[in-house]
C-alpha cells in the first residue's frame, strides 16, 4: 500500500499560553483525495493546514507529507511542493495577475519561455482568459476573480498537494456556487490531493470526497459525505442543521 | 532685486561652485543615509524591542541644533574637525531618522496575509524581502528620503560655519556684512534647490506608488539614478578644490574675511602657491581646532583672544608681553605666531554718536551713570569670555536694569543704531562705526587686553613652504587701524567685493 499523501499521527499543538488546538490528532489523506474539514471558527482548522506546509511544527506527534516527517523536509522545498490558497487570497498588490501566478515558477527559476505559457495555461484553467486578465491588477478584479487567481497561483509549479483555507468564504452565494462547480471541473482533470477547511457543511458536501468534523482538537466524524450527513452525533447534527434548507412548496 | 541679479551675474562662477558644493553635500549625505538607514530600518522592523530605543535615539539626534552638533563633533577624530567631512557626518545623522522611520513603518504597514502568502509560497526570507516587502514599502521609503533630502538642503547651509562650503557661505557672509543682497544670494538658490529636490522626489514617489508595469517602475528608478549620478558628477566638477593648496581660514565676521583674503592673495602672489579659502568658520574655537587638526594652515588671530580664549591665561595689559607669551604657547603646540599686522582690534564699547554728543560722553566712566537706564546688547563670545562683560561690569561698576541681550555680533551694530539697545561691545576696527555714526567710548581704565592681529600658522606648513613664511612676514606692520577701518567700511557699508578691496589695498601699499 502506498504511503498516504498526508498523515497526522498523534499530533498535539498549542499556541503559546493557550489551550490545545490539536490534541492527539490523527488523520490520513490518500493521494488524489479531496478532504473537507469542517469546524467552527477557532476550531484549529487553519493551524492544521499550517502544520502541513511547516508554517508550524507540532509540539508532539508527527506530520508526514508524502511519507516524510515535515521536520525532515527542507521547509522551502516543502512549501513549493504544496499549493496554498489563503482565506483572504493574499494576492501581491504590486504585481499583475500574470506576475502573481508566475511567483512560484520564478522562485523555482523557470525560464521565461516556460513561465509564460504556463501562466496562460493556468489562467485558462481557472476560467480567466489570459489576453483579458494577465495584465490586470489585483484591485481591478472582483472577489471571485481574485479567488480564481489565488487558485491559479497555488497551482503554479503543479504541486501534488493543495491546501485551501476557507477559499470561498467571502463570496456571494451565486459566485460561490459557480466556483464550486469550477473546482470540481478542475479537480476532475488534475486529481490533486486536497485539504479544504471550511465552517460551512454545505460547502464541504459540494466539494469533498470525504468530510471530517473537527471539534476541540479531535475529529468527531471522518467519513464519506453521505455517511456524515446521516450522522446522529448531536455535535455533528448542529453543524448539519446550520445548512440552509429550501422550504418545499 | 536688480542688485541680487547683478550680484549673481558678477559671482556666477562662485555661485555655481557653491551650488555644486551644496548639491554634493546633500546628495552625498542622503545617499549614505539611505545606504545605512534602509538596512537599519529593515533590521529593526523585525525586532520591535530594538526599534523603539533606536527611534528614540534618532529623534534625540534630530533635535540637536546643527551648530551644536558641529561643536560636539569638532574634537572627534576621523569624523569631526572642520570641512566637508564633518558636515557630511552631521547631515547623514540628520537624514537617518526619517529614512529609518519610514522604512520601519513601510515594512510594518504590509498586510500580514500578504507576507504569509509569500512565506507559504516557499519564499526564503531574502526572496520575501526583495520581491514582496521592499517593493511594497518602497513608496514609504522614498517619502522618507524626500524628507531627509529637503531637510538636508536646509541643514547644509549651516555647514558653511565649519568651512564645508555650500550656499550657506553667502548667507553667513551676508549676515556678517549685514547685507541683505548677499544673504538672499545664498538663501534664494537654497530655497529653490529645496523645492527642486522636493519636486523631483515627489515625482519619483508617485511613479512608485501608483500601479505601474514593473518595466516603467524600473525606468523611473533608472531615470532617478542617472539624474542623481549626473548631478553628483557635475557638482563634483563644480565643487572641486585645488588639492595640495595652502588652506587659509578665517572667523565669521567682515574683518576676518578681509584678513583671510589678505593672507590668501599674499600667498598666491608672493609665494606663488595655490590657496584654498576656508573663510567664514564658526568662531575662535573652530578656527583653533581646525589649525590643530590641519584642516587649515593659517588664519589671523588676535593676541588677547589667543591668550584668554585659546590658552585660558589671565588677562594682561602689556601688548608686547602678551605677544611673547602667546607666541611661546603656540610654539609649544606646533604653531607659529607671525609678527603683528600692525593694528590692535580691541573691544570697542560703542554708543550712538547722537547720545555721545548730546550727553558729552567720552569715556566708559562717563557712561556709568547712564547705564541704569540703558539696555546693553552683546555678542555670544563677549558674554562668555573672561575678558568680556563680567570683568567690564566689575571694573567700571556698570549696572544695567536688566541682563544684556545676547545677539549676533554684527546685528548688534544695527540694533544700536536702530535704538533697540543703547550700548554694545563691537570691534574697534569695525567699518560700521563710521557707517552708522556710532561712537567708541575710551577704555580709560585699560580694562581690555591688547588684541594685536597676527597670522598664526602651522609650523609644519611653514617648514615645508618657507616662501609662505617670507610672504606673510612681509605683511608685518603693514595694516594700521585706520587701514583696517577703511577696509571694513568698504566691505560693510559700501558693499564692495572683498577680493577687490584687498587687491586694491595690496596694490596701493606695495
What does this structure look like?
The complex is a heterodimer of chains A (249) and B (510). Chain A contains eleven helices and ten strands. Chain A has helices at 45-52, 75-80, 97-101, 103-107, 112-125, 130-133, 143-154, 173-190, 201-207, 225-229, 234-241, and strands at 6-14, 20-29, 34-38, 60-65, 68-69, 82-85, 161-165, 193-198, 210-215, 218-224. Chain A folds into two domains: 6-81 and 160-241, 3-Layer(aba) Sandwich (Rossmann fold); 97-157, no CATH class. With 249 residues, chain A is α/β, with parallel strands linked by helices. Chain A is 37% helix and 24% strand. In chain A, helix 5 crosses helix 7. The mean pLDDT of chain A is 88. In chain A, the strands form two sheets. Chain A has a six-stranded mixed β-sheet, sandwiched between helices. In chain A, strands 2-1-4-5 form a four-stranded antiparallel β-sheet, with helices on one face. Chain B has 510 residues and is of the alpha/beta class. Chain B folds into three domains: 2-239, Orthogonal Bundle (MetI-like fold); 246-346 and 450-509, Periplasmic binding protein-like II (D-Maltodextrin-Binding Protein, domain 2, 3-Layer(aba) Sandwich), CATH 3.40.190.10; 347-441, Osmoprotection protein (prox), domain 2 (D-Maltodextrin-Binding Protein, domain 2), CATH 3.40.190.120. Chain B contains 24 helices and ten strands. Chain B has helices at 2-10, 12-45, 48-63, 66-73, 84-108, 112-120, 125-156, 168-177, 180-209, 214-239, 254-271, 284-293, 303-310, 319-332, 353-359, 364-367, 380-384, 389-396, 409-417, 431-435, 459-464, 466-473, 481-492, 498-509, and strands spanning 246-249, 275-278, 298-302, 335-344, 347-352, 376-378, 405-406, 423-427, 438-441, 452-458. In chain B, the strands form three sheets. A five-stranded mixed β-sheet of chain B has the order 7-6-8-5-9. In chain B, strands 3-10-4 form a three-stranded antiparallel β-sheet, sandwiched between helices. In chain B, helix 6 crosses helix 7 (125-156), helix 8 packs antiparallel against helix 9 (180-209) and helix 11 crosses helix 24 (498-509). Chain B is elongated, with a radius of gyration of 27 Å. The two termini of chain B are 38 Å apart. The mean pLDDT of chain B is 85. The A-B interface holds A 53, 55, 75-80, 84, 86-96, 99, 103-104, 107, 137, 139, 153 and B 111, 113-114, 116-124, 127, 131-132, 135-136, 211, 213-214.
Amino acid at each position: 500500500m502506498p504511503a498516504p499523501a498526508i498523515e497526522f499521527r498523534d499530533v498535539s499543538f498549542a499556541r503559546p499560553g493557550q489551550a490545545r488546538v490539536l490534541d492527539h490528532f490523527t488523520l490520513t489523506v490518500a493521494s488524489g483525495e479531496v478532504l473537507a474539514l469542517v469546524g467552527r471558527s477557532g476550531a484549529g482548522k487553519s493551524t492544521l493546514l499550517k502544520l502541513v506546509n511547516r508554517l508550524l511544527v507540532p509540539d508532539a506527534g508527527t506530520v508526514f507529507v508524502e511519507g516524510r516527517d515535515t521536520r525532515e523536509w527542507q521547509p522551502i522545498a516543502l512549501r513549493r511542493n504544496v499549493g496554498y490558497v489563503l482565506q483572504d487570497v493574499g494576492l501581491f498588490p504590486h504585481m499583475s495577475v500574470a506576475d502573481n501566478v508566475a511567483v512560484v515558477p520564478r522562485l523555482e527559476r523557470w525560464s521565461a519561455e516556460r513561465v509564460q505559457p504556463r501562466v496562460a495555461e493556468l489562467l485558462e484553467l481557472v476560467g480567466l482568459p489570459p489576453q483579458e486578465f494577465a495584465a490586470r491588477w489585483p484591485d481591478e478584479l472582483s472577489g471571485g476573480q481574485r479567488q480564481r487567481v489565488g487558485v491559479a497561483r497555488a497551482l503554479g509549479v503543479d504541486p501534488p498537494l493543495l491546501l485551501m483555507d476557507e477559499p470561498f468564504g467571502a463570496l456571494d452565494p451565486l459566485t460561490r456556487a459557480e466556483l464550486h462547480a469550477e473546482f470540481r471541473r478542475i479537480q476532475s482533470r488534475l486529481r490533486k490531493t486536497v485539504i479544504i477547511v471550511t465552517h460551512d457543511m454545505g460547502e464541504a458536501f459540494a466539494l469533498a470526497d470525504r468530510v471530517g468534523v473537527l471539534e476541540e482538537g479531535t475529529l468527531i466524524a471522518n467519513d464519506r459525505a453521505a455517511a456524515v450527513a446521516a450522522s446522529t452525533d448531536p455535535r455533528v447534527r448542529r453543524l448539519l442543521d446550520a445548512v440552509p434548507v429550501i422550504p418545499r412548496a | 532685486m536688480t542688485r541680487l541679479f547683478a550680484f549673481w551675474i558678477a559671482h556666477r562662477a562662485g555661485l555655481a561652485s557653491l551650488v555644486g558644493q551644496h548639491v554634493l553635500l546633500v546628495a552625498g549625505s542622503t545617499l549614505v543615509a539611505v545606504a545605512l538607514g534602509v538596512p537599519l530600518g529593515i533590521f529593526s522592523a523585525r525586532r520591535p524591542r530594538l526599534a523603539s530605543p533606536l527611534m528614540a535615539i534618532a529623534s534625540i539626534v534630530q533635535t540637536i541644533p546643527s551648530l551644536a552638533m558641529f561643536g560636539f563633533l569638532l574634537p572627534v577624530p576621523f569624523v569631526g574637525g572642520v570641512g566637508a567631512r564633518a558636515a557630511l557626518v552631521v547631515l547623514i545623522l540628520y537624514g537617518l531618522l526619517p529614512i529609518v522611520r519610514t522604512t520601519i513603518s513601510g515594512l510594518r504597514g504590509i498586510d500580514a496575509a500578504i507576507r504569509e502568502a509569500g512565506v507559504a509560497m516557499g519564499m526564503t526570507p531574502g526572496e520575501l524581502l526583495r520581491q514582496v516587502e521592499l517593493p511594497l514599502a518602497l513608496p514609504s521609503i522614498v517619502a522618507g528620503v524626500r524628507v531627509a533630502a529637503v531637510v538636508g538642503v536646509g541643514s547644509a547651509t549651516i555647514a558653511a560655519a565649519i568651512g564645508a562650503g555650500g550656499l550657506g557661505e553667502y548667507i553667513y557672509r551676508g549676515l556678517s556684512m549685514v547685507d541683505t543682497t548677499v544673504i538672499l544670494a545664498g538663501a534664494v538658490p537654497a530655497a529653490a534647490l529645496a523645492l527642486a529636490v522636493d519636486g523631483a522626489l515627489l515625482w519619483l514617489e508617485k511613479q512608485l506608488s501608483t500601479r505601474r508595469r514593473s518595466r516603467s517602475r524600473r525606468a523611473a528608478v533608472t531615470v532617478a539614478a542617472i539624474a542623481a549620478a549626473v548631478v553628483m558628477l557635475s557638482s563634483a566638477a563644480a565643487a572641486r578644490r585645488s588639492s595640495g593648496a595652502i588652506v587659509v581660514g578665517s572667523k565669521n565676521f567682515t574683518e576676518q574675511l578681509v584678513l583671510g583674503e589678505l593672507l590668501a592673495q599674499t600667498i598666491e602672489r608672493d609665494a606663488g602657491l595655490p590657496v584654498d579659502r576656508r573663510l567664514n568658520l564658526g568662531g575662535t574655537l573652530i578656527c583653533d581646532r581646525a589649525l590643530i587638526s590641519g584642516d587649515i594652515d593659517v588664519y589671523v588671530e588676535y593676541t588677547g583672544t589667543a591668550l584668554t580664549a585659546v590658552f585660558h591665561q589671565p588677562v594682561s595689559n602689556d601688548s608686547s608681553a602678551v605677544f611673547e607669551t602667546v607666541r611661546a604657547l603656540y610654539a609649544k603646540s606646533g604653531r607659529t605666531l607671525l609678527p603683528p599686522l600692525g593694528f590692535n582690534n580691541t573691544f570697542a564699547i560703542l554708543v550712538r554718536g547722537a547720545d555721545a554728543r548730546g550727553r558729552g560722553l567720552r569715556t566708559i566712566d562717563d557712561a556709568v551713570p547712564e547705564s541704569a537706564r540703558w539696555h546693553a546688547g552683546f555678542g555670544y563670545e563677549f558674554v562668555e569670555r573672561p575678558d568680556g562683560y563680567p570683568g567690564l561690569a566689575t571694573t567700571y561698576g556698570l549696572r544695567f536694569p536688566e541682563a544684556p541681550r545676547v545677539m549676533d555680533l554684527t546685528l548688534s551694530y544695527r540694533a544700536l543704531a536702530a535704538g533697540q539697545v543703547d550700548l554694545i561691545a563691537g570691534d574697534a576696527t569695525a567699518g560700521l562705526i563710521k557707517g552708522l555714526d556710532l561712537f567708541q567710548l575710551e577704555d580709560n581704565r585699560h580694562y581690555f587686553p591688547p588684541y594685536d592681529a597676527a597670522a598664526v600658522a602651522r609650523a609644519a606648513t611653514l617648514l615645508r613652504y618657507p616662501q609662505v613664511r617670507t610672504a606673510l612676514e612681509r605683511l608685518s606692520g603693514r595694516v594700521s587701524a585706520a587701514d583696517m577701518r577703511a577696509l571694513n567700511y568698504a566691505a560693510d557699508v559700501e558693499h564692495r567685493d572683498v577680493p577687490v578691496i584687498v587687491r586694491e589695498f595690496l596694490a596701493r601699499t606695495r
